[in-house]
Structures are given as structure tokens and as C-alpha cells.
Amino acid sequence: MKITAIRHCKAEGQESIAPLTIEGEQQAIELAAYLEGQHFDCVISSPFKRAIDTH
To answer: What rounded mean pLDDT belongs to the chain?
Structure first.
């Protein structure tokens, strides 16, 4: 079994509705490119906006 843990990208704060910063948005794009083509059986995410916007 392989487990991959990814922390959310840079956000404007710790509140549940804090959006990603411009840098965080770029990090999310780069992360998506890095993970492209990989298969995941399950994705578990926080319901916070910064986590959802990261994936």
C-alpha cells in the first residue's frame, strides 16, 4: 500500500474560508502537473476552502 500525504497550498489564513494566495494558486497548478497520470484509489480532504482549492 502506498500513502501520499499533501498539505494544502499557501493560503491567506487559517480560517475555514481562507482562499489560496496567488502563490498558493501557482503551487496548486504545479502540484496538479506533478501528480498527473498517477492513480489514487481514495482522496481524503479537509472541507476547508484552502484544501479543496489545492486539489
So the answer is: 95
How many other C-beta atoms lie within 10 A of the C-beta of residue 30? 11
- So where are the chain's domains? 1-55
Query: What would the grid cell of residue 25 be?
Result: 494558486
What is the DSSP secondary-structure string of 1-53?
A: ------PPPPBS-SSTTPPB-HHHHHHHHHHHHHHTT---S-----SSHHHHH
Q: How confident is the model over 38-51, as pLDDT tens digits?
A: 999 999 999 999 99
Residue 45: exposed, middle, or buried by beta-carbon count in 10 A (0-12, 13-18, 19+)? exposed
Q: How far apart are CA 16 and CA 3, in angstroms?
A: 25
